[in-house]
């Protein structure tokens, strides 16, 4: 991967929001954006650089609106400045979660997700964005075909699988979802949990966030069932369990195809998209095997 652009620090340093001299250090973890810890006389801040990614359905104006709404609703850090392709947020003294942290904190995570789903519609504004993972998968397939992806020959099988998983979904009310609940997007300050990174946030059913949380954290069946029960307030029925298991497969398929598209269009310093694709395909294969063993193939 390419080295970071040295001009980025000059762009950050030139922003009008700082109090005195600044120190800048890169932050690890971004798969498609560059993040920096900035220190000035007022304290510490996070500067996030990003541009629109139409191939990923990412629009920065919508992300900024959602970040501001998430702070207003009590879920995310305060946005301190936005301009010149850079968003500056307050720095949170908190630990970034790994998969094992998510698995160990289901009783805290489930109500956080539910509260986000229920409260965010009161705070977001502007045109409503719909995130439906099966549409995203179909659109990714078009992008990969047009871009001559090395996975072009496998796209019919991916689309057939997506159709099967979509047919297994149970109807649920529309909520406002985060839609990218990787472990690293949960932060724990010792007293409360925070959510960060709202690139894909939009209206959806709860099932995608619940499934994404489970699949991204590598939950066992019992943990996945516990998350559902904690979210809904009762033990899930057989149809809900199947829907959730199918959506976990869809979440991993989407993540793998996200990486395939990123192989064509992104070159983020330090990120090996080919390796990330391979990892998610392997996880999809294992999760799909478990799903098919338990439920068989959903009829057409």
Key phrases:
globular; three-stranded antiparallel β-sheet; 15% strand; alpha+beta; Phosphorylase Kinase, domain 1; five-stranded antiparallel β-sheet; 10 strands
Describe this structure in words.
With 300 residues, this protein is an alpha+beta fold. The chain has 2 domains: 7-90, Phosphorylase Kinase, domain 1; 95-295, Alpha-Beta Complex (Aminoglycoside 3'-phosphotransferase, Chain: A, domain 2). The protein has 10 helices and 10 strands. A 5-stranded antiparallel β-sheet has the order 1-2-3-5-4, sandwiched between helices. The protein has a 3-stranded antiparallel β-sheet with strand order 6-8-9, covered by helices on one side. The radius of gyration is 19 Å and the shape is globular. The model has no long low-confidence stretch (mean pLDDT 94).
String of helices and strands: HEEEHEEEHHHHEEEEHHHH
Relative strand content = 15-25%
What is the general shape? Answer: globular
CATH topology term of the largest domain: Aminoglycoside 3'-phosphotransferase, Chain: A, domain 2
| CATH homologous superfamily heading of the largest domain | Aminoglycoside phosphotransferase (APH), C-terminal lobe
Number of domains: 2
Major sheet summary line: 5 strands, antiparallel
Specify Rg, calculated over alpha carbons: 19 Å
The level-1 CATH class of the largest domain: Alpha Beta
CATH architecture identity of the largest domain: Alpha-Beta Complex
Task: Write a brief structural summary.
The protein has 10 helices and 10 strands.
List the SSEs and their pairings:
Layout: H1 7-13, E1 23-27, E2 34-40, E3 43-49, H2 60-72, E4 79-83, E5 86-90, E6 95-96, H3 99-104, H4 106-119, H5 133-146, H6 155-167, E7 174-177, E8 186-188, E9 193-195, E10 202-205, H7 206-216, H8 221-232, H9 238-265, H10 273-295
Helix pairs in contact: 4-8, 5-6, 5-9, 6-9, 7-9, 9-10
